[in-house]
Specification:
The chain has 465 residues and is an alpha/beta fold. The protein is built from 16 helices and 18 strands. A hairpin with a 2-residue loop joins strand 10 and strand 11. The radius of gyration is 22 Å and the shape is globular. The two termini are 30 Å apart. This is 5'-nucleotidase domain-containing protein 1. Keywords: Acetylation, Hydrolase, Magnesium, Metal-binding.
Length: 465
């Protein structure tokens, strides 16, 4: 595989919407998502009213990459080899001794099952025994589930937990496809009435960049699992009423990752009339706005539009299981992972120790405060953690399983589209590759913990030699 990746070599640019093109004010949106689920559990399912109150620092619990063991009420942070780095029962952190007693120093027995969740929908299903939290729409639900476990322990002394079916119902009630139109639930009515409170307008640099891509002859796609009415609200707010001019093809209710993994018979495209889905299409013949669909028929249309037998597609997204893994695994597209945690880990770097050129810093200073739980005090870095040594042995720095997934399935990882919008189209990014440095692939700079670990490893190797 080539060492470098350039957008100039791509014929088609595909974009996810939520938390990719449309960035949210995270503290406000996290609280809204939490409240929307909690309101349902309390009013419809009779859960403790204390769930409706939230301490200001509670969202620190939220950390991408956590796995919920539903039956045990435990949250786990996993190393790349499947061992448990940190854990909590409900919101209460487990000690190192408790972790060793419960899970031992070995691959967690369900690690292969949870690893496979990256390739499945990751959706809230009743049959779930585990749930992987990998995006900002999910994370507030992790805090709510943890508090439910605390509440059940306090009142019922439960050892096995049966709250998941109610959590599924809360999610379905607030996010169902008709909720926006019907003003159903808490989430959509609130965003409709106060979009500025929750949505960040698209930076001018990104809007200019999108226009430059089209001027350079690139085909632009918008592929989102959001329904068409919510998509229109977001796009008009962040891009303007002429947002459709930025894209050749808009696909809503894409039901990712099924969009990439399903066949045309399983997931046909549908046209829309007044945001209502119409009959299934046998083929996709022209650009436009569609609903549902599949990557196979889309790619056939892209061949016609580009006049190439094998057009090169790059897809930008923020979810490993909905965007990055399926686009790479099923469609063999290049993938750019939008990872706001790259901003969070930079917050802790003192200004006088920064070594990046001036043009690579300063741009994000205002954004850092908007990502309050990208570095959780309770859970630590998304990328690395310390594994305590056994029997007085020294602790070691290890990559998290989430970090391994980033380098395995992403071409590159960036904190936002704004980070690359001012670069020339033929800029050459160093891509992730298994036989190169663990810090390759991150732009504009690697996460600090990963850089430190890489530096330490090189020092140790040098000393040994």
């Amino acid at each position: 595989m080539q060492q470098y990746f350039s957008l100039a070599d791509c014929d088609v640019m595909g974009f996810d919407l939520d938390h990719t093109l449309c960035r949210y004010h995270l503290p406000q949106s996290a609280r809204l998502i939490y409240d929307s689920f909690a309101q349902y559990l309390v009013t419809e399912k009779g859960y403790d009213k204390d769930l409706l109150t939230l301490a200001p620092d509670s969202l620190d619990f939220c950390c991408k990459g956590l796995v919920l063991d539903i039956e045990e009420g435990n949250f786990l942070k996993l190393a790349e080899d499947g061992t448990v780095l940190r854990a909590s029962h409900g919101t209460k952190s487990m000690t190192h001794e408790e972790i060793l007693e419960t899970y031992g120093r070995r691959e967690w027995k369900h690690f292969n099952t949870v690893s496979a969740m990256v390739s499945r929908s990751g959706s809230y299903t009743l049959a779930s025994k585990y749930y992987l939290y990998d995006n900002y729409f999910d994370l507030p639900g992790a805090l709510l589930c943890a508090r439910v476990v605390d509440s059940l322990d306090q009142h019922d002394g439960q050892k096995k937990y049966d709250f998941w079916k109610d959590m599924v119902a809360a999610v379905q009630h607030n996010y169902k496809i008709s909720a926006f139109k019907e003003d159903c639930g808490t989430y959509f009515p609130e965003v409709k009435n106060h979009p500025d409170k929750y949505l960040q307008r698209c930076p001018e640099s990104v809007k200019k960049w999108l226009k430059q891509l089209k001027s350079a002859g690139k085909i632009l796609l918008l592929i989102t699992s959001s329904h068409s009415d919510y998509c229109r609200l977001l796009c008009e707010h962040i891009l303007g009423n002429n947002f459709e001019e930025y894209f050749d093809i808009v696909i809503t209710n894409a039901l990712k990752p099924g969009f990439f993994s399903h066949t045309p018979n399983q997931r046909p495209f549908r046209t829309l009339e007044n945001d209502e889905e119409q009959e299934a299409l046998l083929s996709l013949d022209k650009p436009g706005w569609y609903s549902q669909g599949n990557a196979i028929q889309l790619y056939e249309l892209l061949k016609k539009m580009t006049g190439k037998l094998d057009p090169k597609v790059v897809y930008f997204g923020d979810s490993m299981h909905s965007d990055i893994f399926p686009a790479r695994h099923y469609s063999n597209w290049e993938t750019v992972f939008i990872l706001e945690e790259l901003l969070g880990d930079e917050v802790a770097v003192p200004a006088d120790s920064e070594s990046e050129p001036l043009e690579k810093k300063g741009k994000y200073e205002g954004d850092q405060l908007k990502a309050p739980y990208s570095v959780s005090k309770q859970w630590g870095s998304f990328f690395m953690d310390r594994l305590p040594g056994l029997e007085n042995a020294e602790e070691t720095l290890v990559r998290t399983w989430s970090c391994k997934c980033v380098s395995t399935y992403s071409t590159i990882a960036i904190p936002s589209l704004e980070a690359i919008a001012d670069l020339p189209l033929d800029y050459r990014f160093t891509r992730f590759c298994s036989n190169r440095s663990a810090t390759a692939g991150y732009y504009p700079s690697p996460p600090r913990p990963l850089s430190y670990a890489s530096y330490s490893s090189k020092c140790i190797t040098t000393i040994q030699q």
